[in-house]
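Input chain follows. Return C-alpha cells only.
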Amino acid sequence: MRKPLLTLTRIILTVAGAVIIVECAALIAVGKINFGTTVPLMIGLIFVAHGLSWPRIQRFIKRRPLLKRGWYALWGLFSVWLVSFAVFIISLQQQIELSRQPLPDLAAIIVLGSGTVDGKPTPTLASRLDSAAPIIIAQPAAIAITSGGVGFGRDRSEADIMASYLNEAHQIALDSVWQEDKSTSTEENLANSKALLAAQGISIKAPIAIVTSDFHTIRSAAIARHQGYTQPITVASPTPLSIRYNAWFREYFAFVSGWLLGEY
C-alpha cells in the first residue's frame, strides 16, 4: 500500500474507531449494555489499534506467513460483511421512507410489543404506542390490536399494559382495543393476531398497519408477508438519535438470524 493511501487509511481507522468507542462507552455508562454496544465497542478498539500500530502489526505478521494469511482473510471477510451491512441499511432506510407515505383505509392496526418495566411501557414501546394512537383515532373503523404476552415474573400481559397506556395517554377506550396476550416474539405477535382478525371477519389480505420501531420495519414486514399478510403497511416510530445506529447494528444481526430460522 502506497504511503499516502496508508496514512489516509490509518487516519480513517483511528478517527472512526475513536468515535465508535466514545459513543458505545457513553451508552454502556448509562446501563445500555447489549449486543449493539459491546460488539461495536470491540470493533472500535480494533480500528484504533490498527490505526495507531499499523507498522508494528505489519512487521509482526510479515515474519509469520500463516498469521499473515489469516489476518488478510479476516479483513476480507470484514469487507464483505461491511458491504452486506450497507445494503441492509439502505434497504432499511427505503422501508422507513415507505412508512411515511399517507395511509389508505385500514382494516386493522397491530402494535407490536417491545418490553415493559414496572407495569409501564419502555420508552421504545411508548414511542410505538404514541405513533399508533393518531392512526387509531383517525381510523375508528379499523380494529386496533396490542400484541405481547406475559413476561417472566410478570402478572400482566404486555398487551394489557399497552392498551392501558393508549387509554391513559390518548383517551382511547379500553374496550375498543383487542389484546393478543400470548406472544413472546414478532413472529408470534403476527401469527397470533390472525385469530383476532379472523374473529372480526378481517382477511389478512386486507390493508393492515403494523406499528413498530423504525429499525424493526424491514424485519416485521418480511415476517408478515411470509405469514400471508399481503398488504402489510409498516408504521415506523422514531428511535432516539443517541441509540439509533446501535439499534440498526443489532437489528442487522436479528434480521440475519430470522432469515436463518426461516421466519421469512
